[in-house]
Amino acid sequence: MSIEITEWLRNLGLEQYAPAFRDNAIDHRILPKLTAEDLKDLGVTLVGHRRQLLDAIAALNAEMPVAVPATSRKAAIPADAERRQLTVMFCDLVGSTALSTRFDPEDLRQLISGYQRAVREVVTAFDGFVAKYMGDGVLVYFGYPRAHEDDAERAVQAGLRAIDAVRRLEAGSTKLEARVGIATGSVVVGDLIGEGSAQEQSIVGETPNLAARLQGLAVPDSLVIGASTRQQIGELFALEELGPKQLAGFAEPQRAWRVLGESGEVSRFAALRSGRSPLIGRNEEVHERAPKPPSAFLPER
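The structure corresponding to this sequence follows.
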């Protein structure tokens, strides 16, 4: 994906930094790898501008094809491109820019590594796939390379557990917080590119970008999901509707919900069926299965 840096900065309202990016040879290949420290070196002194740029870089990374290491595949992946449904989770460590000013670089590296490890362990327990680490962001797929009928449910459970796991990390007097966005939708798992250890599998679609945008709506220690994920999980979780949100990159407002926790529904079947369409055209079968009155079993006179 080729990006014209000056135009990208102009769209963000930050074109004043274009000369610094140009003078330091920042092109479309380097841009996705920039860190908070790199932005400081480029003269981005305002915390708000650094945060805006880091969020835009994270969204950019989510839009880019993801390289899947051959050694990490859990199932055989066909060489032909295919369309499939994925649930994508984007997890972000809150306040990483402030942390970089509070911790020694070596200590910060260990803290970020601990955060990534905590998220990875939770995700792996729910059979999710960590597709990419982006500094303080973690991009995760549920439904690839192995699909489950409850991938959306697994993703939401993993998101809640990840937030809790990050909260429990030791960071001195500093409280660590995460925020998570989850979206479900169709993507195209692309053709295999390259050979041997350099082989990559591209995954493209708007779902990762939506997950990243929903993560941007989340307050610290919270999880936000989109409409398709909401439809998949039924009433398994307690939710707070946030209403339609206008998100960058999307022409139409996107509905969003904050996940408050697991619901108190006793029956998982009832929770998943709640709010879904009733059976239609099955009156005869329903009538046959309905309990019959005692008089129905008496002999005819």
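Residues 65-78, 192-200, 275-283 have pLDDT under 50 and may be disordered.
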